[in-house]
Amino acid sequence: MTEHTVRRTAPEHHPLDTATRYGLVNQSASTDSTVALRWVQDPRCVAFARSELRKALVNWNLSVLADSAVLILSELLGNAALHAKVTPEQAIETYYVRRREGVRIEVHDGSAERPQPRPADLEAPTGRGLLLVEVLADEWGVADRDGPGKVVWAELALPVGQSGEGGCW
């Protein structure tokens, strides 16, 4: 298996790249089955992270999962950007991992506070994100990670009868 990056040129080589200007710290450890990205704590990063996830899903022939995957990522990364109390040295990280039958989305941050779904208040403007994740994901959870903080993850499987044809699986 050959290794390649989803984005062939490192962001630091493109100073005018919008994602670089608005929060992409770096792209590390990208392979044919994993895309790892680091972000500053800024809600604007969510849009750029969604774009990178869509690119990965296209490359892995998993576009059928894109709508749900992007919404899940938006909620998880938005929560990290809003709630994680991290230092500039503790950037938020996203990992998109190609699985045999789908994709795993991970958001790592330096906060030990674990998110909990809460009952939706019809009058509140927020508080429904994890309920959406729970409905859309086949599985999701929170785990410890190496170093401070946590990882919030969600997995999506291809619909029954569909496969990620043409991929490395």
Please state the average pLDDT score: 77
Q: Sheet with the most strands?
A: 6 strands, antiparallel
Q: Strand percentage, roughly?
A: 15-25%
Reading side by side through the largest sheet, how are the strands ordered? 1-2-3-4-6-5
The geometry reads as: globular
Low-confidence stretches: 1-22
Count of beta strands: 6
> Count of helical segments?
4
Rg, rounded, reads 16 Å
In terms of structural class, how would the helical and strand content be classed? alpha+beta
The N- to C-terminal Cα distance equals 11 Å
Element string (H = helix, E = strand): HEEHHEEHEE
Q: How much helix, percentage-wise, in residues? A: 25-40%
Summarize the structure in short.
The protein has 169 residues and is of the alpha+beta class. The protein has helices at 18-21, 45-59, 66-83, 129-136; strands at 24-28, 34-39, 92-99, 102-109, 139-144, 150-157.
SSE map:
Blueprint: H1 18-21, E1 24-28, E2 34-39, H2 45-59, H3 66-83, E3 92-99, E4 102-109, H4 129-136, E5 139-144, E6 150-157
Antiparallel strand pairs: 1-2, 2-3, 3-4, 4-6, 5-6
Helix pairs in contact: 2-3, 3-4
